# Entry
Amino acid sequence: MKLPTPPALRTTVTNSPPRMKTVVRRLKFESELDLSFGEHVAERAYGQKLLSCIQCGTCSATCPLSHYMDYTPRKIIAMTREGFKDEVLNSLTIWLCASCYACTVQCPRQIHITDVMYALKREAIARGFYPARNPIPVLAKAFYERVRHDGRNTESRLLITLYLRTNPFKMLKEAMLGLHLFLTGRLSLKKEKIKGMKELRKMIDSVEPRKEAVPL
Ligand code: SF4
Ligand code: SF4
# Structure
């Protein structure tokens, strides 16, 4: 019996001309790099140790999420140091970092890799270097806004803001679950607020004096 040809192996003959492929340069010239970027991030991530990385890869081997990252932590450190600002701030890696501190504990040069990731996240938010509907930076920004505004986070309001800014249709999908949690008293719409808001804002402003570092 003759076996049918698998679909993937069938040859399709068409009259259309072959499509032109776009040629993309993958190299970057030194003039296109931001050579001050490494120092800039190092200043915001507790010191100049970042610049002393020996590229041993221990951080990447330790990181539980490196398999899912577009650049491993070792590469992020190297690229940051060399000034690949656009690539680093556009990478998924900085948003996948779960702040577990495993890399920081293991690094033989005592580089604060987790703090570097935090610094890069802040830079990405401040400079708008992230996909608008990526839930991770949207959540981080919404959480910051809630705490800055009320002194506390109200989970139900945070979730509503997150869905509205990322995927409003998902909110409709989750509506029944939300209703169930609300009816059983596990989700409240009541806004939580602290009394000393003036003092809290003063404290926040004092630890974030640089406007470009404030994720607003
Ligand atoms: S573990 Fe430390 S020294 Fe080694 S590559 Fe990572 S950051 Fe660099
Ligand atoms: S802190 Fe982030 S980069 Fe470091 S090991 Fe944990 S997830 Fe990976």
About this structure: Residues 53-59, 74, 77, 107-109, 111, 113 surround iron/sulfur cluster (ligand 1) (CB under 6 Å). The radius of gyration is 23 Å.
